[in-house]
Write a structure and sequence with these properties.
50% of the residues lie in helices and 9% in strands. The chain has 154 residues and is mostly helical. It has a domain of 103 residues: Zincin-like (2-Layer Sandwich). The protein has a 3-stranded mixed sheet. Helix 1 packs antiparallel against helix 2 and helix 1 packs across helix 4. The N and C termini lie far apart (56 Å).
Length: 154
């Protein structure tokens, strides 16, 4: 080995790698939803408003929900916190709305990477629908319709 050759060692924490890979799944799902949602709007004015609405949102990933966020006896994959964009005064909310997608519940419930990716897409869509003003019953109806059409989640 010559004197010019240098060895570079990089230690990779498996948890950090898992976090990075999960964040990439979440961002890919957000981008796909944004592109599909905005493209489906009828006018450029509505498209610009939709972009602004989505840009006003904080999206983040965390390993697990806090104990006080967990539903009793249930699993929490994602959480929407904030004022829905359809609510009166939403444009003047002091704190931006926030979506958190939780990594470990997805990993535990969906050990298969393909199933996990589908679940992340479904969770992201679910939480974004809350931000855009859809209540839980409406989201369930949309999800059932998508499954009935043989979409990617059905």
């Amino acid at each position: 080995m010559s004197e010019d050759t240098k060895w570079t060692f990089r230690l990779t924490d498996p948890e950090d790698a898992a976090r990075d890979a999960f964040a990439e799944l979440v961002w890919a799902a957000v981008d796909a939803y944004r592109d599909e949602y905005v493209a489906g709007l009828e006018s450029e004015a509505l498209q610009r408003r939709a972009e602004t609405t989505l840009e006003s949102l904080v999206i983040m990933t965390e390993d697990e929900p806090l104990p006080e966020q967990r539903p009793p006896g249930g699993t929490l994959f994602g959480l929407y916190e904030g004022v829905r964009r359809t609510a009166s005064g939403a444009d003047w909310a002091i704190v931006p709305a926030r979506i958190t997608i939780f990594r470990r519940p997805h990993e535990w419930a969906f050990p298969d990477p393909i199933a996990r990716e589908r679940a992340v897409v479904s969770t992201v869509r679910h939480e974004l629908a809350h931000h855009l003003g859809t209540d839980e019953a409406g989201i369930r109806a949309i999800e059932a319709e998508r499954r009935g059409q043989g979409g990617p989640h059905g």
